[in-house]
Design a protein that fits this description.
232 residues; mainly alpha; 8 helices; globular
Length: 232
């Protein structure tokens, strides 16, 4: 019975997280294409990204007993530490990715105060909080980490999200969780692609957009130009 209840929480949490992130991406970048929005949401919802956020925020400490020794978390922590080192080196070399440190800091502070986060928090850090995360993958990795390592952390996180939705509603859940994704969403879809080259950003750069245009052109050839709006 407990396992079934947890499955239900996971279902609610995963669905709610997709909806909340989709809405947030569209609200921030209303002129972005569907492919761009899908890419940005995927950078937030990817298993690697969720697991990284769970580790960096310390949420994983509440998943297990203090005396437990989870091998997958330990293995992922090693990967996170390596990704953070790579990301900080890249940040210093590029002087703030494509934005520059000054612009990144301005955006971060604007969103920081907009979310009414405590003034005592450190917003003057020389590096991003998520220096080791880029485009939904760990920095330096072109592909996703194996699902075996991330699966339990992702399942537990989404189950917690589901419990929050049932307790305080979708809006209450997102108000509490949006700071976890804030830094990822500071970059526009175009900036995300320029900064990070991996399987997620490349897939939605050529695949989804090209397929959509191809299908639209096929339908126009079959049914005429009045079928839909002209695609630029």
């Amino acid at each position: 019975l407990l396992a079934r209840f947890r499955e239900n929480l996971f279902f609610v949490g995963e669905s709610a997280l997709h909806l909340a992130l989709t809405t947030e991406c569209h609200r921030r970048y209303p002129l972005a294409s569907a492919g761009d929005l899908h890419m940005l949401k995927s950078c937030c919802i990817a298993d690697d990204a969720i697991s990284y956020i769970v580790i960096k925020s310390g949420i994983h400490c509440f998943f297990y007993d203090q005396d437990s020794d989870n091998e997958h978390i330990q293995r992922f922590q090693i990967l996170v530490d390596e990704a953070d080192r790579n990301g900080r080196d890249a940040w210093k070399h590029c002087r703030g990715w494509v934005l520059g440190r000054e612009e990144f800091s301005k955006r971060w502070k604007r969103r920081w105060w907009a979310n009414d986060i405590s003034k005592d928090s450190n917003v003057e850090s020389p590096y991003p909080t998520y220096a080791g995360l880029g485009g939904g993958c760990l920095y330096g990795q072109n592909r996703k980490i194996g699902k075996l390592i991330c699966e339990d952390m992702v399942y537990s996180f989404k189950s917690i999200i589901g419990a929050m939705v049932l307790s305080v509603g979708l809006e209450g859940m997102w108000n509490a969780c949006v700071p976890l994704f804030e830094e990822i969403l500071l970059l526009s879809p175009e900036e995300t692609r320029e900064c990070f080259k991996n399987s997620i950003t490349s897939t939605y750069e050529s695949g989804k957009k090209a397929q959509s245009i191809e299908r639209t052109n096929h339908l126009r050839e079959r049914f005429g130009t009045g079928w839909s709006a002209i695609v630029s």
